[in-house]
Amino acid sequence: YPPLPQSDFETWRKARPDAYASGARLNPAEKNEEVGPHQLEGGRLWFGKTFYDSEGETGVGGFGYFDEALRSYKLYSLKEIQRWAVSAILVEPDCVWLALYRRGEYGNDPGGLLRWDRKTEQVRKFPIRSIADHIAHLGDTLYLGGADGIMTLRGDQVTSYFVDRTIDGHYQVVARN
């Protein structure tokens, strides 16, 4: 695959006004946008962009695909994703799910879950408590897995689960809302 196109200064300045206002200045050597989590669909490799966002390095969040037949990238950088890296992706016939996070110097922070409608290009954002590194859809439930446990999305309701040890030493799955 050819190298992933990097955001230019003007794109970065408009997409990341918070970073620009704080005095950060973009140097081409400091951009580190990379292909992150990915999924193959037909002749397209869908992916979320990932980047480190601290110590002078930065990027503009987005997602898209590489079209094998055309040998070219198609990138989307919606306002809801521009300050976030992608930690997980699920491409479905009608939508693309993207789990977001910030990769920073003092740790990583969750940025929510996006559902991008492939037909209308409308976005819905759902809050999630931890960073998801896997997304699966089974029946009417979307499952997100990560180091802190499992999260589910049913309709508009996000529920987090974790394994807890009871006083008598047994383990149980507990919902955390």
How do the strands and helices of this protein lay out in sequence?
Elements: H1 9-15, H2 17-21, E1 34-41, E2 44-50, E3 63-67, E4 72-76, E5 85-91, E6 95-104, E7 107-117, E8 123-126, E9 134-138, E10 141-146, E11 149-154, E12 157-165, E13 171-176
Antiparallel strand pairs: 1-2, 2-3, 3-4, 5-6, 6-7, 7-8, 9-10, 10-11, 11-12, 12-13
Question: How would you describe this structure in keywords?
Answer:
globular, four-stranded antiparallel β-sheet, 13 strands, 2 helices, mainly beta, 177 residues
Shape: globular
Strand content: over 45%
Strand pairing plus helix content: what structural class?
mainly beta
**Whole-angstrom Rg:** 18 Å
Please write the string of helix (H) and strand (E) elements: HHEEEEEEEEEEEEE
Helix content: under 10%
Question: Major β-sheet, in short?
Answer: 5 strands, antiparallel
Q: In angstroms, what separates the terminal alpha carbons? A: 42 Å
Number of strands: 13
Arithmetic mean pLDDT: 90
Secondary structure tally, helices: 2
Identify low-pLDDT runs: none
Strands ordered across the widest β-sheet: 9-10-11-12-13
Protein architecture, described:
The protein has 177 residues and is mainly β. Helix content is 7%, strand content 50%. The protein has helices spanning 9-15, 17-21, and strands at 34-41, 44-50, 63-67, 72-76, 85-91, 95-104, 107-117, 123-126, 134-138, 141-146, 149-154, 157-165, 171-176. A hairpin with a 4-residue loop joins β3 and β4.
Short description:
By secondary structure, the protein is mainly beta.
